[in-house]
Write a structure and sequence with these properties.
about 280 residues, mainly alpha, membrane, 10 helices, about 85% helix, transmembrane
């Protein structure tokens, strides 16, 4: 369990710290390339959907039966739906609109600017908290995937890492506008990503050192449900907004094709004990 926890921690750190990469988009450029972020989000959505349906849910149904596999899968959907109900969705829209108004100078005045900054700062903090709460079950997913095998853990971590880059932008952009501090924007985005390895640590001590194969497959089926809901509820709408529906859908299928190839070649390349 110790070695599995170290592997899961390393993989979750890759995913969690990718929010820092998103923050770099903000602090190193005047305006982030929103279309590129949308395509990246669509690509990550394809990775996640491929993992959810073609790997996690598929294996759970084959291992523990159609009924139990589906119950676990939709249990994961309901679990994450309850989390999403109480967490504001990350958005990049308001802060960029406010920034544009500030540049144009219409509806101006210092008092109005201060009010906008307070509102945007509050929005950024709420978004950071929300993304932290979202990252927590993602860390749990990486840990459970790593228990199943390196192949599952690596692919989950890759998909989550790509997904977290736009989330880092969603945190850093309003914080940077409100505080005019690149360091504060980068720091808060990075901290929100560190909730992911925290999820690994907590879930590692919640579960016994050895899980029955049936429970493990069921939990992985639930992880598939969580990932599917996260993809359809949050990632695809953002991809459509930023890149347009046609381009985003193309990116989704490219992501699915890449993940299918990755699942195949990684399984071939890993030693049997790690596969």
């Amino acid at each position: 369990m110790d070695s599995q926890m170290l592997v899961a921690l390393g993989l979750s750190l890759v995913g969690g710290l990718s929010t820092s990469l998103g923050a770099l988009f903000v602090v190193l450029s005047e305006t982030p390339n929103m279309k590129m972020l949308g395509l990246l989000q669509g690509f990550a959505a394809g990775l996640m959907l491929s993992i959810s349906f073609l790997d996690l849910a598929h294996n759970a149904i084959n291992s523990i039966g159609f009924l139990k596999g589906n119950l676990w899968f939709f249990g994961g959907v309901i679990f994450f739906a309850c989390i999403a109900k109480f967490i504001p969705e990350p958005t990049l829209g308001p802060s960029t609109d406010v920034k544009r108004r500030k540049k144009n100078g219409d509806e101006g005045g210092k008092d109005m600017a201060k009010k906008h900054r307070r509102q945007v700062l509050y929005s950024g903090i709420v978004t950071a908290i929300g993304i932290s709460l979202h990252n927590f079950p993602e860390g749990m997913a990486v840990f459970l995937g790593s228990i199943k095998g390196m192949r599952v853990g690596v692919n989950l971590a890759l998909a989550i890492a790509l997904h977290n880059i736009p989330e880092g932008v969603a945190v850093a952009l309003p914080i940077y506008f409100a505080t005019e501090s690149k360091w504060q924007a980068f720091k808060l985005a990075t901290l929100s990503g560190l909730a992911e390895p925290l999820g690994v640590i907590i879930v590692a001590y919640l579960f016994p050192s050895s899980l029955s194969p049936e429970i493990l497959e069921g939990l992985l089926g639930a992880v598939g449900g969580i990932m599917a809901f996260l993809t359809l509820h949050e990632m695809l709408p953002l991809a459509f907004d930023y890149a347009g529906q046609k381009q985003a859908v193309k990116a989704v299928f490219v992501g699915m094709a890449c993940m299918s190839a990755s699942l195949y070649f990684l399984e071939l390349s890993l030693p049997e004990s790690m596969g």
